[in-house]
Structures are given as C-alpha cells and as structure tokens.
Amino acid sequence: MAGPRIIYLHGFCSSPASWKARLLAEFLAIAGLADRFFCPVLSPIPRAAIATVEALLDSDDAPTTLVGSSLGGYYAAWLAERRDLNAVLINPVVMAPSLIEGLVGTHANYYSGRRFEFGAAHAEQLRALDTPLVTPSRYLLLVETGDEVLDYRLAVERYAGCRQLVVEGGDHSFTRFPDFVPQIIEFCGLQS
Predict the structure, then answer these.
(1) Which of 33, 71, 116, 189 is the most buried (most CB within 10 A)?
(2) Residues 6+ apart with CB under 8 A from 107
(3) 33: burial class by Cβ within 10 Å (0-12, 13-18, 19+)?
C-alpha cells in the first residue's frame, strides 16, 4: 500500500492554479512528498466534479485526506462521509438555498477565463450533495472571520465538535493559509 496522499479540491470558478493549491504542492515538493499531492481540474458541473474525484479515489487504495476550499470543501464533506475519509475544510460552502440560487447564471473560470453556464439543474445537483450529518472526528475546519463571500459562522455551527481553527480577519481566500500548512500536513498524516 502506498503512503498517505492528499487530494485538493478547488473552489467554484477556480482551478489547480489557485494559490493555495500551488503553495501546498510546493510545500510537499520541498519535503520530498510531491508524489503524494493530487489536485484534479474540477468541472463546474457538480456531478462531473464528484465523478472526477471518485475516479481518483478508486485509482489507488492509499490512505487519502481531502483538502477542500470553498465549494471544494462542500464536496470534500460529502465524499468524506460517503468514503470514510478525513477532510480539511477551508472556508467551506455550507448548504444555503440562497447561496446555491445565487450561482445560477453565466460564470468565468478565474484562471482560464473559460465561460460556462450554471443552470437550475446544476443547482439541484448541489442540493443533492448536502451532507446532513457529519462525523466530527474526521474534520479540520479552517475559517477566517473576514470571509466576504460566506458567513464563517455557518461553517463553525455546521462543523460543531470538529477540530476548528477560527482566524480573525482575512477573506474568502483564507489569507493566513501559509501559516497553517504544517498543521494541514500533520492532519493529513504526511510528515515533512
């Protein structure tokens, strides 16, 4: 069996080129653990995004921890409960009908510029991935109180009983991410 690995799930309109994904990959590469990091390109279509991650999970029986940012955190929670995995959630989306309804429309990927439509059927796919019950022992929650996109208090409430690091200030990108990379690596079972 291979050593532990991390699968990083980026957020909506994001990509593996996001600064958090790149920083985590660089940190692991410097530690000689580059082969333990995976960050797939996630489709903006929820079912397709989940299928991509499930295929990656099925490709190897290595112990895996998911690290999900924003919508990637929402996906990570669903997959963690379904697949008996641990997950680090960074400013994660918490099911909120108004948030999901607000996603319907035309969007562009922040990195590629590629435009796409997110329709009502896609919003229903997101609703279907809601995880009503979570197992507190499997999560590390990282939130910044200054998140301008999501109300951090919803995540704190949703993941009550989980290990939580609530950081004052910041924004939706989780500005203090570099400070917490060692804790993330440790939680994921990778030693640098």
Answers:
(1) 71
(2) 12, 13, 44, 115, 116, 117, 118
(3) buried
* One pLDDT digit (tens) per residue for the chain, 192 residues: 578 999 999 999 999 999 999 999 999 999 999 999 999 999 999 999 999 999 999 999 999 999 999 999 999 999 999 999 999 999 999 976 677 888 899 999 898 889 999 999 999 999 999 988 999 999 999 999 999 999 999 999 999 999 999 999 999 999 999 999 999 999 999 975
Residue from 23, 73, 17 nearest 49 by CA = 73
The domains of the chain are located at 5-187
What is d(CA 5, CA 136) in angstroms, rounded to the nearest whole number? 21
Top-level CATH class of 5-187? alpha beta
Residue at 175: amino acid letter: T
Contacts of 72 (CB under 8 A, 6+ apart): 8, 9, 10, 11, 14, 42, 92
- Identify whether the C-beta of residue 16 lies closer than 8 Å to the C-beta of residue 41: yes
Helices vs. strands in the chain: H and E counts, helices first: 7, 8
